[in-house]
Amino acid sequence: MDDQTRVEWRDWGQDAFDEAAEADAPVLLSLTATWCDHCHEMDAETYAEPRIAANINDSFVPVRVDVDRHSRVRDRYNMGGFPSTVFLAPDGTVLTGAGYLGPDGMRQVLDSVRTMWQTKGSGAGRVPRPLREDNPPAGRLTSGVESAMLGQLTEAYDEVAGGWGGSPKFPLPDALEFALKRDREMALRSFDAVSANLLDEYDGGFYRFAAERDWAGLQHEKLLDSNGALVRAFANAYLLTGKDEYREPAERTVDYLTTTLWNDEADAFANSQAPGEDDAHTIDATDRAAADEPPVDEGVFAGPNGLAIEGLLTYYAYTDDERARRYAERALETLRNDLLEDGVAVHALEGDVERDADGEVTPLLANQAHVLSALTTTASILETDALASATAVADATIDRLRDGESFLDGPASGAGLLERPLRPLDTNVAFADALLELAVLADEERYREVARETLEAFAGASDRFGVQMARYATTVSRLLEGPLVIRVAADPGTDLHRAALRMADHEKVVVPATDDLEAGLARVERGDQRSDTAETPAELSERVQSVLE
């Protein structure tokens, strides 16, 4: 990333802040990503300019951070996108910040920050609001959460272009899945818009977002985490409609993930693919075949691999696609053998493992949530042995990251503002949702209660959640109503189990190899409802309909 720059970058850590304190100089924090085209552009045009680089090296302590490898730094200092250019006091507080800065803009900001520092010093530093307001407003969970989110989606829905909101336009897989069950027409029109505009028709896989409301201005980077989530979303759309127009985008993305984003040496999925210097995505198919492949970040990260495993197994459950199953199993084996230690996910396969003073792996909530979801999906679809690993992940997370009624993103320790606790709503919800699944699969009510308390911890602000937080409403609905549960007294892969997976409610939980029934039977449950047992797929379909009605 920084081979073009003339800036003498330091690594993130306490040493850089100590150096800044000793020199009485601000820190220039550059947040970048390997897939970020504008980050490379800023390196080539701004940080490579000799006078700017000299100015930074003489008057600041420059620190470069890869946001995928240091997610807690990203979440505390992100200025709304990447690159983020953030000026800090030696105590880690924020002096000012911006996004992309060209040479002229950087010169002006450097002069402004230097003047600010000489005038006010560390007194000019501030702590961002999410780090000042530690405890979110708690409240009661009611059915109003679901209806309020549906109202948000309806209000934000783009009748002309599909999707939600103005610009930029993101695919929002959680919103797509929420709407599938509650306003299918709106959901399917948005699925259509995402596939028509963000799917790479040549190589497969989804681009990250479009800059304009009409889906113009495509940003051609492709990220593992969003593609894994979109495989799941499109597979669920296929489940509910039976239409190939939703299966095919998922299939194309599975092909992309298992070829371009497959790290064969690691036996897992690579993190991302950049747009490429000449933006090969904008040329026609003939020229594209001869163009250099855009570079891939081969890094293997636990959380994004968890999302990919979940997406591929969901697709396999509905299609019997052996390629999806095979690669999900391979990545799962790497996850279990190389990225899990005593229930804690190691963030990255490469580099040094971050450990606490007791030598234990440092847990990150996002990793724990996505790995737990991958394991519960595995237990439901593939093999029940995954429940032991899922329980270990859940217990380690509750033990080490739960603070009060909700969860911190990681331990409140480290350089800069890492010592400030952060309770990210999205990953709290993702973990609560995975706990609900685990509560059913493992028949452990305690996980359901932790999920309830986690959701209640944020409920006081739920009327203000935007469409990006549709999963909160989905999870609250599953908690209050109880998910549709299909218990099958048969092993994964049998006809009755496969039929259960394909019953058209993508928010259901299928429990294979249950001890609650005689062998070869299945039963449908929801809340206090219990169906008669079923022996055949046809009977099971009837039982599901009777419970849903």
From TrEMBL:
Listed Pfam families: Thioredox_DsbH (PF03190)
Region listing for Disordered, in residue ranges: 120-142, 525-549
All residue ranges annotated as the Thioredoxin domain in the record: 1-115
Gene Ontology BP term (one): carbohydrate metabolic process
Domain of life of the source: Archaea
PANTHER family: SPERMATOGENESIS-ASSOCIATED PROTEIN 20
Name of the protein this chain belongs to: Thioredoxin domain-containing protein
Organism: Haloterrigena salifodinae
